[in-house]
Design goal:
Elements lengths: L1 H13 L1 H21 L14 H12 L1 H4 L2 E7 L9 H15 L4 E4 L2 H4 L8 E8 L8 H10 L1 H5 L3 E5 L12 H18 L2 H25 L7 H30 L6 H28 L7 H32 L34 H12 L1 H16 L7 E2 L11 H13 L7 E6 L5 H17 L3 E4 L3 E2 L5 E8 L6 H14 L1 H6 L2 E5 L1 H35 L3 H26 L4 H4 L7 E2 L2 H31 L2 H28 L7 H33 L8 H6 L22
Parallel strand pairs: 5-11
Antiparallel strand pairs: 1-3, 1-4, 2-3, 6-9, 6-10, 7-9, 8-9
């Protein structure tokens, strides 16, 4: 592999104009298609095969009025007044008239006629029903809904919007995301010691992300995907794009610290060695993301494949466009020698040799850190493992669910409407369930009696607060009952109620030959969480087995891959513990602007495992490949560990800080899903890079010694030699054949 990548790097440097032109053309085409022919992104997380989704599909088919999107207008009287006053009634009437005029609204219920007024007459709500699903309601209609609240607000009433239609769009590009990019640039500049060199990874990452994300945007025209799919592709693509370019640029400048090094030869060698690590790391990330398909959940599969496609583009950019731009910059990237012949600050990893012709020992802090890890491996392991396990403790209380309006920003109308409804009608009002009774196969004369039996069973349940009157479709075959629990949507009692209703309330329908479903947004969250929890073991098994195989091929070792996977599992446990502590327990909610303590987004653990696994293996490959390279040449296990940390520690540190900066910018996004994903990935990257890869890994390898690099003879013959060390490359000019 090294030979092919060496040839590719030199070719890209020589044909740099053509390579740059091709990538710019691809970017222009992708942007054109993505902006003009993009599809509609969904805000719903539908999962075929679960009961709540089957009920929703049935409602769309037989009772479309009950399946359409709903905008819930919530009113609260001024302090000391009631909504029954003449002034308040006029304001409510004027507001509902404007709501009814919004395009797409079929009907608006009057609170005074439907009885949707609180007992103290201070809070009421009216549901505006649309003729299409919430995700199909255009933003223009949503904007007019907000404008329709003006009469009530002008009269001194509080008026807020809830319901499925009011979900705000996900937006990126705010100040927090920009700050993350600025921090990444500062880290690049400090690491590479050159503003010119620092700008190159950002430029190539932006081009790669532009091609990848805009292509995903275009594909949304043909494939249904959620809005989080493009955000995830952006997050992952930008982070790995910067990191992959950093590794190549850093290796290139390290080699250029030797004044006799030819620029084109150095580009080829950087592409062959660092590029091999990039290829292996990228393939690992792609496999981990693509493995999300094993969960059997379409929206998660699309998210994984969208992000995987963007990572693939990042790898191709690193192997072609980066060498081309390095060719354009030529000698300008060579570190300048200081007095006494030392290389400049841009020499991130040192000169080409052990001390190099520049006459300095590179990576002094990395060497000191590596020696500390190899000198005291057992205390280091005890402290790190105990600390990570302590962070992981909250993960035992992990609860999964889908975000409700409670988790929207506290200043948003969605969050305010949630609080008003809870205040006026109790916590269970925001957890309303639907029981859909399909009597198509039941004789018409028996249908009403069956519905009454279901209603009687529901009313007997101690956790049911209210049962709404039945609502039947035109041909009488489908009846819907609304059930208001006594507990909120995130309460375990609500989950238990859903299971009881499915076991008990549906029995009369089953005996009569019909079908009954317990559905609604709360039930959907419970079903999706159960589906994902069941898929988790298989998903973990797939990526662990694939990782062991890939790393075994890369490092020709059994213990190194095993150690890498165990370290990853430790990182995952600690990261999930931190996420639970902040988002589920509600700690540090002011700092991270968490609106309310709530269950963790149901697909976050699977997503975190897939993404963090790939990124963790990135750092494993980049760090351990330098150790393996040194051991392969010198057969000194302890020196190999110290050398790997010395040569790669600074770059791995920079890469982790860059990735954390990119992910961290999304923590302050208003969307609760993006916020929690950004936090999980940020804390996961920091823990895995600094605690596991730069601390635990050197300590474990120091304890294992030469056994870390051993491979049974029979297995050694079976495992292909991919040569990530660059042994097959031609000798460097003027070195007498030296490889290192």
């Amino acid at each position: 592999m090294a030979q092919r990548l060496y040839a590719l790097g030199r070719w890209a440097a020589r044909r740099r104009g053509r390579v740059l032109a091709v990538w710019l053309l691809l970017l222009a085409v992708a942007v054109g298609l993505g902006t003009t022919l993009s599809g509609k992104l969904s805000t719903e997380f539908s999962v075929p095969g679960i009961e709540s989704q089957e009920a929703q599909d049935l409602l769309k088919e037989k009772f479309p009025e009950a399946a359409g999107g709903t905008a819930r207008v919530v009113f609260e009287a001024p302090k000391g007044d009631k909504l029954t006053g003449a002034k308040e009634q006029r304001a409510i009437g004027a507001t509902l008239k404007k709501v009814a005029a919004v395009p797409g609204v079929l009907d608006v219920a009057d609170p005074t006629k439907t009885g949707t007024v609180s007992k103290d007459r201070t809070i009421a709500y009216a549901d505006a029903v649309f003729g299409k699903p919430a995700q199909d309601v255009p933003q223009s209609a949503k904007d007019k809904l907000d404008d329709a609240l003006d009469p009530a607000r002008d009269a001194g009433l509080k008026a807020e919007l809830g319901g499925t239609v009011s979900t705000p769009p996900v937006e990126v590009g705010g100040p927090a995301e920009v700050i993350g990019i600025v921090i990444a640039f500062v880290v690049l500049a400090v690491t590479l010691g050159s503003l010119l060199a620092a700008g190159l990874p950002l430029l190539t990452a932006v081009i790669g992300v532009g091609v990848g994300v805009m292509t995903v945007q275009f594909l949304s025209r043909f494939i249904e995907m959620t809005n989080t799919a493009t955000i995830l592709a952006l997050m992952i693509g930008l982070a790995v794009g910067i990191d992959y370019a950093l590794f190549l640029v850093s290796r290139h400048r390290e080699q250029l610290a030797d004044p006799d090094e030819d620029v084109h030869d150095s580009i080829g060698r950087a592409t062959a060695t660092a590029g091999s690590a990039v290829t292996f790391a990228g393939v690992t990330v792609i496999i981990a993301l693509a493995a999300l398909a094993s969960a059997g959940i379409p929206f998660l599969t699309v998210m994984g494949l969208a992000a995987a496609g963007t990572v693939l583009v990042a790898v191709l950019v690193a192997l072609t466009l980066v060498p081309a731009l390095l060719g354009f910059l030529g000698e300008r990237l060579r570190p300048k020698a200081k007095q006494g012949g030392t290389a400049g600050a841009g020499d991130t990893e040192g000169a080409a040799g052990a001390t190099g012709k520049a006459g300095r020992v590179p990576g002094a802090w990395g060497l000191a850190w590596g020696r500390l890890m190899t000198r005291f491996p057992i205390p280091v392991l005890v402290v790190c493992v105990v600390g990570m396990l302590a962070l992981a403790v909250p993960a035992k209380s992990l609860r999964l669910g889908l975000p409700s309006n409670e988790t929207q920003p506290t200043a948003s109308t969605q969050h305010k409407s949630y609080e008003l409804l809870q205040k006026g009608f109790g916590p269970g009002f925001n957890a309303t369930l639907l029981i859909a009774v399909d009597g198509t196969k039941v004789p018409a004369k028996e249908r009403e009696g069956i519905v009454k039996q279901v209603a009687a069973t529901v009313q007997k349940d101690p956790d049911v607060a209210t049962l709404a009157p039945p609502n039947t479709n035109k041909d009488g075959t489908l009846t819907v009952l609304g059930v208001v629990p006594k507990s909120g949507p995130d309460d375990q009692r609500t989950t238990d109620l859903v299971h009881r209703l499915r076991d008990e309330a549906t029995k009369p329908v089953d005996r009569a030959g019909g079908t009954a479903y317990v559905a609604g947004q709360t039930a959907a969250g419970i079903d999706v969480s159960a589906k994902l929890s069941g898929a988790l073991p298989l998903f973990i098994a797939i990526i662990v087995v694939l990782a062991l195989l890939l790393l075994m091929i890369a490092f020709r070792s059994v213990l190194v891959p095993l150690k890498a996977v165990l370290g990853f599992l430790l990182s995952i446990a600690a990261s999930l513990g931190a996420v639970v502590w902040v988002f589920q327990y509600g700690h540090l909610d002011g700092i991270f602007q968490v609106a309310a303590a709530a269950p963790i987004v149901s697909f976050l653990p699977v997503l975190l495992i897939g993404v963090l696994f790939g990124l963790a293996m990135d750092y494993e490959v980049f760090l351990v490949s330098r150790m393996r390279e040194h051991y392969h040449h010198h057969r000194d296990a302890r020196a190999a560990v110290e050398h790997g940390v010395e040569r790669s520690g600074r770059v791995v540190t920079a890469a982790a800080l860059i990735m954390a900066s990119v992910f961290g910018g999304f923590i302050f996004n208003h969307d609760p899903i993006i916020k929690s994903i950004g936090f999980a990935l940020t804390i996961g990257v920091l823990l895995d890079a600094f605690v596991v890869r730069l601390t635990v890994v050197p300590a474990v390898l120091a304890l294992l010694g030469r056994y870390a690099w051993a491979l049974p003879r029979w297995l050694d013959k079976a495992v292909p030699n991919v040569d990530i060390e660059g042994d097959s490359l031609p000798p460097r000019p003027g070195t007498g054949g030296a490889k290192e």
